[in-house]
Design the sequence.
């Protein structure tokens, strides 16, 4: 049940610092000194985590780079952020999860918890096998694709993009896009007040009687 960290950098002098403090694993990039000649520093950090390990908090952040995880983990709180890069997560159980990408795509599969929030300023959001009490997904410029979603309250907004989904089970939902198509297939009728709005675009909603 050990956690191991592998660093693959083309310049070891600028490799991230790895340290353990108060039962917290911290991996931070070093501050680069300003030089006349700019080196193309590239680094990949691989954290090997045993399956089904429990954490108090999971925090993943990168300023320029992708975040990818294929290990099922559990935590009270999960915070995943990428300023410029894609986020691809497969398997997190968490009471609260917040996933944000400023410029990049978000792909999240297999989540179970209380609240799930995802947002990207420029990119697509793809959610699959998500179960939560409160679920919110927002894309300023990009599409939102949903599959096998279960939530009590579901909010999905796209400023410029499509919102499509299938196998949706939501007690109440608020779906809106300013410029784009909305196509959703629900497997059960909502029991709470629900709204669908598209300022400029086609709407297709399938709800069983």
Sequence:
């Amino acid at each position: 049940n050990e956690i191991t960290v592998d660093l693959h950098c083309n310049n070891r002098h600028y490799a991230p610092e790895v340290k353990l403090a108060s039962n917290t694993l911290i991996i931070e990039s070093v501050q680069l000194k300003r030089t006349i000649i700019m080196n193309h520093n590239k680094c990949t950090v691989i954290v090997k985590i045993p399956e089904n390990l429990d954490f108090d908090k999971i925090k993943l952040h990168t300023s320029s780079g992708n975040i990818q995880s294929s290990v099922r983990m559990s935590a009270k709180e999960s915070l995943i952020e990428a300023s410029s890069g894609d986020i691809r997560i497969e398997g997190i159980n968490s009471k609260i999860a917040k996933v944000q990408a400023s410029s990049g795509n978000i792909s999240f599969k297999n989540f179970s918890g209380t609240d799930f929030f995802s947002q990207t300023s420029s990119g697509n959001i793809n959610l699959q096998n998500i179960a939560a009490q409160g679920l919110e997904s927002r894309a300023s410029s990009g599409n939102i694709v949903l599959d096998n979603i279960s939530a009590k309250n579901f909010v999905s907004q796209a400023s410029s993009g499509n919102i499509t989904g299938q196998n949706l089970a939501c007690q109440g939902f608020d779906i809106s896009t300013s410029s784009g198509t909305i196509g959703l297939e629900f497997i059960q009728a909502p029991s709470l007040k629900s709204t669908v709005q598209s300022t400029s675009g086609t709407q297709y909603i399938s709800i069983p009687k």
